[in-house]
From TrEMBL:
Superkingdom of the source species: Bacteria
Keyword line: Signal
Family annotation (InterPro entries): DUF1501
Protein name: DUF1501 domain-containing protein
Organism: Massilia terrae
Pfam families the UniProt entry points to: DUF1501
Keyword Signal among UniProt keywords: yes
Keyword Signal: yes
Signal peptide segment: 1-25
Amino acid sequence: MKRRDFLNALGAAGLMIPVGRSAWAATGDNPTGAKLIVVMLRGAVDGLNVVAPVGDENYLRLRPTIGLSKPGTENGAIDLDGYFGMHPALASLQPLWQEKKLAFVHASGSPDITRSHFDAQDYMESATPGNKGTPDGWMNRLVQQLPGQSTPSRLLGIGPVMPRILSGSAAAINLPNGAAGTKANILDRPKIGAAFDQMYANDPRFGRAYADGKDAHKEVMEAAESHEMQAADRGAPLPNGFPDDAARLATLMRNDPKIQMAFVALGGWDTHTNEGAGTGQLANRLRPLGQGLAVLAQRLGPVFDNTTIIVMSEFGRTAKENGNGGTDHGHGNAMWVLGGGVNGGKVYGEWPGITDSTLNEGRDLAITTDFRWVLAQTAERHMRLGDKALARIFPAMPQKSAGFQLLRA
């Protein structure tokens, strides 16, 4: 049987298969306890309306119909520091801001000038802007630098396909969105499972991947079963969409210490038309995103104290609204960082301004913080990695410091 046919057969059976050139053995727990969750907003979210410079007179001049009104007005921004305001649809995150467990890094992003969604997302996931030949994702490289042995579930993705950011030589597994991700599959039926065991368990080429896949599935199912019982006791259904996936992910990470890093991708952020201001299309996307992040923080419980969540997007959007009530592909954006170890309650980054003379190419928010500096600081201060490890994870990253301490040591 060809490798592709083998993978297709197991995929059809619903088995989570570790991928990579050399999957690790399923032994040992996470020795550090530090966890990392990355949420990718595919389509380029409008960071200038997520964290809006409402204190700048140029803001509403550039965005007369989609700009957020000042704090204290109907559907107005949520005041952050007197100059920046958070989109009102993210009100569920205000408690985390007040608790100093949420921060933003504005005017951040990839230094590459592409406006292609495909290329920009690839660069954000490989962490090698401008280099399309990088074979692996930065989260896969990161997990290889962590101490201790790993299990197939140490690196987890949630979505329809295995994402670029998790690809590489270390093992990773992927769960589908929704409740199906933690439901039994046909290999859980004794007769079918036994038949697959007979075919693949001792196969010299595929036996390792098959065994690791079964171990990962069993591990996730056991973690999920504990949650299902708790949910039944409370008698309340989980919300739909991302909050639902976030609740399941939090439960898995809380119940299974072997799950150390996770990645989730969410679409629908390419707001070329009818973006809206305090209400409308963007607000309708941001509301469940904020709710899901709040669910993650709540459901992780004490584990949240040792978890960092990063929200990023491939690039920002134009500072000036277009003729269709939307925004076009831009450059600089805002990264979100949440967690118990975050120096929160601040908007970080050197703010370049949004005057005609300071805009990138006369149209976009300029970038003053390379997104890799945020990732590297997380790997260093949260995951406790040294300079040599950082150089392997983020090759060719500029040596210039970000100039701020986003996380506590």
